[in-house]
Design goal:
It is a single chain. By secondary structure, the chain is mostly helical. It has one domain: Na+/H+ antiporter like fold, CATH 1.20.1530.
C-alpha cells in the first residue's frame, strides 16, 4: 500500500499545483517568478554538467547493442506509441493534454531512478549508468527535434524559438559545467543534498509558473474530472505498453537477464527533472500547465510500477555468467 502513496516530491508538486490554483502569480509577480525560474533552469543544467562523470559513460560505450535498444525504446518506440494514442483518442482529450502526451513521449530517460531500480533488480548497473546518461545528453538535442516533428501538424503551443532556447538555457550551461568539472566535481560530490534541493526547487518553480499562467488564462478552470480520469488511463496504457515492449523485445533480441533489466528500467522511464524545464523552454502560453500534467502523472506511475517490478526481478535467479562475476 505504501507504493500507492505518492512520494514526498510528488506531494510537493501537487501542493504547488494547489497553490497556483488558489494563489496564482499575476502581473509583476508572475514576471519575477518567470525570471527566477529561468535562472534556476540555467543553474540546474550547469550543475548537471558539473556532476555527470564522463568516465562512467566512456567505460560502457562499447556495449552498443544495449544502448541502441534503450535509445530505440526512448526515442522511437515511445513517440510511435504517442502518435498511436493520439490517433485513437479522437475527442476524448482536449488538445493541450494530447500535446502533453506527445511531449512526454519525446523526453529522455531518467538517470537516478533508472540506475536505482536496475541496482535493486540486480541488473547491469554499469550499462544503466552509461545508457541513462547518454539518453539525457542526446535528449537535449533529440527532444526539441522530436517535439517539432510530432507537433508539426498541431501548430499549438510549440515555439520554434524554443529550440534555440534549449541550446542557450540547457545545452550551453551543461557544456560549461562539463568544462569546469575538474575544479567543481569534487565539491558537487560532497553536496548531494544541496544539489538535490536545487533540482527539486527548480521543478517546483517551473510548475508554479506554468500552472499560474494556466489558471490566470482559465485553461485549467473547467477541466472535468472525467477528462483527468481518461488522461490517467492513457498514462497507464502507455506505461504498460512500453514495459511489455522493453521486456519482450530484449528477450527476442537475445539479451541476458541483467541487460534486460537495464533495458526495461532505462527504456521505460521519462525524466521529470529535465522534462518540466524543457517544457517551459519549448512551449509558451497558458497551455503549459496542461502540457506538463501527463508527465507528472506518468512519473508517479512509473515509480510505483517499477518499484514492484524491481522486487520481482530481484527475487529471480541471476544469469550464470553474472552470478560468477557479480
Amino acid at each position: 500500500m505504501r507504493r500507492l502513496i505518492p512520494d514526498s516530491f510528488i506531494l510537493a508538486l501537487l501542493t504547488t499545483v494547489a497553490l497556483a490554483i488558489v494563489l496564482p502569480a499575476q502581473g509583476s509577480v508572475a514576471g519575477a517568478v518567470d525570471i527566477l525560474a529561468t535562472a534556476a533552469i540555467v543553474l540546474l543544467f550547469f550543475l548537471h554538467g558539473v556532476r555527470i562523470p564522463r568516465e562512467a559513460v566512456l567505460a560502457s560505450l562499447r556495449h552498443w547493442r544495449l544502448h541502441s535498444a534503450i535509445l530505440g525504446s526512448t526515442f522511437v518506440a515511445f513517440p510511435l506509441l504517442g502518435l498511436g494514442m493520439q490517433a485513437s483518442a479522437g475527442s476524448l482529450l482536449p488538445q493541450p493534454f494530447l500535446l502533453g502526451v506527445l511531449f512526454l513521449c519525446a523526453l529522455p530517460s531518467t538517470v537516478q531512478s533508472s540506475i536505482a531500480f536496475t541496482s535493486i533488480a540486480r541488473g547491469n548497473v554499469a550499462g544503466a549508468v552509461a545508457a541513462a546518461t547518454i539518453s539525457n545528453l542526446l535528449g537535449m538535442l533529440l527532444t526539441p527535434l522530436l517535439v517539432s516533428l510530432l507537433l508539426h501538424s498541431q501548430g499549438a503551443g510549440f515555439s520554434a524559438s524554443g529550440v534555440g532556447k534549449i541550446f542557450s538555457q540547457l545545452l550551453l550551461p551543461f557544456v560549461v559545467g562539463q568544462l569546469v568539472r575538474p575544479w567543481l566535481g569534487a565539491w558537487a560530490a560532497r553536496r548531494k543534498k544541496l544539489l538535490t534541493l536545487t533540482d527539486r526547487g527548480t521543478i517546483v518553480l517551473a510548475v508554479y509558473s506554468a500552472f499560474s499562467a494556466a489558471v490566470t488564462e482559465g485553461v485549467m478552470r473547467n477541466v472535468p474530472v472525467s477528462v483527468l480520469g481518461i488522461l490517467f488511463l492513457f498514462c497507464c496504457v502507455l506505461l504498460c505498453a512500453i514495459l511489455f515492449i522493453t521486456s519482450a523485445g530484449s528477450r527476442l533480441l537475445g539479451f541476458d537477464r541483467e541487460d534486460e533489466i537495464a533495458i526495461v528500467f532505462c527504456g521505460s522511464k521519462k525524466t521529470l527533472a529535465s522534462g518540466i524545464p524543457m517544457a517551459r523552454v519549448l512551449f509558451s502560453g497558458p497551455d503549459l500547465g496542461a502540457i506538463v500534467l501527463p508527465l507528472m502523472m506518468f512519473h508517479q506511475l512509473q515509480l510505483m510500477a517499477c518499484a514492484w517490478l524491481a522486487r520481482r526481478y530481484a527475487a529471480s535467479p541471476l544469469s550464470p555468467a553474472f552470478a560468477a562475476n557479480p
